[in-house]
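Priority: medium. Attachment 1 of 2:
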């Protein structure tokens, strides 16, 4: 059984790797799936102005008709991730980074969406996390899709290593 609202907090290692490698510099960023706030806190600690909300506090991303900022970074619920991507670009998001399943594009619907909204970069991690909180052996390989514009001409593939834990 899945957690309510598909709530699975983003591992700190994944947030750190994302913020270390995204290359956007401090900016205004929208975090619409803020969950426990750890992504927001880490982005703010790096000098970003962050507007945040979460469905658990009555702020449903799919009810927005206009992006709060042109930049969005989040770990969205994976079940509606395709609708999430479409909606983000439909309401004016210009740059976006999503923590996502490693097999996001590995199906017919994924390929179609990839062609429509080709990311600038697609990143796999060279480590796994106990993302679902089952305890024991890490259970999930995560990825990050990064758009520097709504539809890039090419996609660069990267593999990130786990950052040193401070």
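Attachment 2 of 2:
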């Amino acid at each position: 059984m899945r957690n309510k609202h598909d709530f699975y907090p983003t591992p700190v290692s994944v947030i750190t790797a994302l913020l270390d490698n995204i290359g956007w510099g401090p900016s205004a960023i929208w975090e619409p799936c803020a969950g426990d706030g750890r992504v927001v806190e880490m982005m703010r600690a790096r000098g970003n102005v962050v507007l945040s909300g979460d469905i658990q506090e009555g702020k449903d991303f799919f009810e927005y008709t206009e992006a709060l900022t042109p930049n969005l970074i989040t770990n969205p619920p994976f079940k509606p991730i395709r609708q999430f991507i479409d909606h983000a670009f439909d309401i004016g998001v210009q740059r976006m980074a999503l923590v996502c399943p490693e097999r996001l594009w590995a199906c017919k619907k994924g390929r179609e969406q990839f062609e429509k909204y080709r990311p600038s970069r697609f990143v796999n991690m060279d480590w796994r996390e106990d993302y679902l909180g089952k305890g024991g052996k890490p259970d999930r390989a995560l990825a990050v899709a990064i758009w520097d514009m709504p539809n890039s001409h090419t996609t660069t593939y990267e593999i990130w290593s786990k950052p040193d834990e401070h």
